[in-house]
């Protein structure tokens, strides 16, 4: 039963069924052809017997009976020169039940009469009309019993069925062996590779190596190889990310404690009477506060408990100003210039800390790209609002993103635009924007520079 439920077993059964069906379709016209040949043979025998009688006028009644018996008919009528003549005759045991004209019978009629004969078990007397061979007359007509005809048809049909069964068995067996050799065995090999790979997907040695000769199986193996390779890489990256996440969580924990202590020192710095210190102290306090919040968020993310954005009214110009001031300190030599086009009255609903991180990541990436290019450049931050969205556009005149970075945009550890970069900046920015219900998209990137667009929805939340 297990063999029959297999692919090769079912193929064996289907082969036997279809071969037998084909043999049955061949059997019907074959049995009709056999009946036609049988009746034509009786006509030829009857013609020979009648010609023997015509050749000799002195034939005894016993010889006539022997001729009719050898011909397998009761009587013979021959038409020659428009004259219809009863040549041989003997008593007919029953009335004639049907007449069959073999001269113009169609294939459909021959098949119909053959099937009717097989379906009629009782013997009957029939009349058969045909043309004499070798132009020995115009018409020959005989009467005969159908018992011998039906028995001969049954015997012929049984021989055909037996032969068909033997051919079906041999054909099915050969196809069964061929299917097992060329299809089932390669499929089992693929299944075996899949089971082996499932046991240890991190093991590169378990990735299938395509070797099938059948085109379709080869394509399946190549596709499976690609999937396994990608999955193995993804699992390794996931493992590295998990390890990195644990390390970052530990570092963030200790860093948060250090920054908390630094925050206490800044409180004392704010009491200084030095004008420069007074001017720089608030920015230092804000930077340390943001660093503390970032460490806390990192620890929460490591526990899969990162909170969503806390929406509040935010003056975008203030956030952008803080970002630009911080980046100007990083550049120092004036190679990168900053400009902004932010309406002073533009207020949007967002998480101020997360929005700062998004803009800072994008501006920092642009600044690093310009510095690495060795040419001066400009970074511009512009914003506008529509009826449905707030739109922030960050553009630079740098060299543009590399092809690899564009292909793996927003993917961690794959979309880095600078040598040694991790690509985490864009990933973090995109996730934070999605947390606001918005979208971060690359508008363009070519040799003229790069432009990112942040779209934040105005609706969907209650007014704060």
From TrEMBL:
<feature type="transmembrane region" description="Helical">
    <location>
        <begin position="160"/>
        <end position="179"/>
    </location>
</feature>
<dbReference type="Pfam" id="PF00512">
    <property type="entry name" value="HisKA"/>
</dbReference>
<keyword id="KW-0472">Membrane</keyword>
<keyword id="KW-0597">Phosphoprotein</keyword>
<dbReference type="InterPro" id="IPR003594">
    <property type="entry name" value="HATPase_dom"/>
</dbReference>
<keyword id="KW-0808">Transferase</keyword>
<dbReference type="Pfam" id="PF02518">
    <property type="entry name" value="HATPase_c"/>
</dbReference>
<feature type="domain" description="Histidine kinase">
    <location>
        <begin position="250"/>
        <end position="460"/>
    </location>
</feature>
<dbReference type="InterPro" id="IPR050428">
    <property type="entry name" value="TCS_sensor_his_kinase"/>
</dbReference>
<keyword id="KW-1133">Transmembrane helix</keyword>
<keyword id="KW-0812">Transmembrane</keyword>
<dbReference type="GO" id="GO:0016020">
    <property type="term" value="C:membrane"/>
</dbReference>
<protein>
    <recommendedName>
        <fullName>histidine kinase</fullName>
        <ecNumber>2.7.13.3</ecNumber>
    </recommendedName>
</protein>
<dbReference type="InterPro" id="IPR003661">
    <property type="entry name" value="HisK_dim/P_dom"/>
</dbReference>
<keyword id="KW-0418">Kinase</keyword>
<dbReference type="InterPro" id="IPR036890">
    <property type="entry name" value="HATPase_C_sf"/>
</dbReference>
<dbReference type="InterPro" id="IPR005467">
    <property type="entry name" value="His_kinase_dom"/>
</dbReference>
<feature type="transmembrane region" description="Helical">
    <location>
        <begin position="12"/>
        <end position="32"/>
    </location>
</feature>
<dbReference type="GO" id="GO:0000155">
    <property type="term" value="F:phosphorelay sensor kinase activity"/>
</dbReference>
<dbReference type="InterPro" id="IPR036097">
    <property type="entry name" value="HisK_dim/P_sf"/>
</dbReference>
<dbReference type="InterPro" id="IPR004358">
    <property type="entry name" value="Sig_transdc_His_kin-like_C"/>
</dbReference>
